[in-house]
Amino acid sequence: MRSSNPVFSRRGFSRDNNGYAGFNAPPQAGGPAANPYAGTNPYAQGPADAYAQGTQAPQYTPQTRPMTMDDVVLRTGMTLGTVIAGAAVGWIFLTKSLGFAVAAGLIAMVLAFVQSFKRKPSPALILTYAAFEGLFLGALSGAINDIPKLSGAPMQAVMGTMAVFVAMLVAYKTRIVRVTARFTRFLMIAMLGFVLLSFVNVLFMAFGGGDGLGFRSGGLGILFGVVGVVLGALCLALDFKQVEDGIAYGAPREESWLAAFGLTVTLVWIYTELLRLISILRD
Length: 283
Known about the structure:
This protein is mostly helical.
């Protein structure tokens, strides 16, 4: 399954038959450490000529020109802005109607899966996902904030998410964190294990009652929350690497929407894990 969601998988850019970059499935874990952008190991050598091997460079139009960092920043800002607007609505109107909030969260999940299966990014679909995700996050955050001993926890989670983003950006740009093929495989395996454990815990909570396996409270809950935040932070490094390589290898401008989608999903992940962790610590 192709997905920009860091929980499941990553897609990379590769040249299509016309010589410019497009989105394609990543190499399978355990296979050769192939460059998804040029067919060579991206960690063993520098960026290759995106139009090498005798391929004629395409004639770009304003609609098909390669994406730039400005494109990624603009689309990411639009997507996150939609999440924030939705969160404001959810905080004001849905805090006392968590049933609607849960419905919004489920819709957002479905839309995220639909986008993950699409070969090309759909701006309308991504922004709609962001709106429903914002509704869910706003209602959830408002409900938590209304609990006296947890008042202020959502704002702390927002500040923490911003701090994690800046810290990982600095760590990535200074090469303290290096995204290699081994790093990517390890992260995907760790994320899969984390998601499976969370799913099993939900099943135990649903059918056995209580806190399930104990991942939502106490010392084990704190440890599980810390692991979740760390995994989300590492996924940011993977997002940065994909944006950097996509620009270097001439991914089409429309792919900046998919980069924005991936960054948004990762930041939402970090925020929800921080919110849960702070709630446990303050409880």
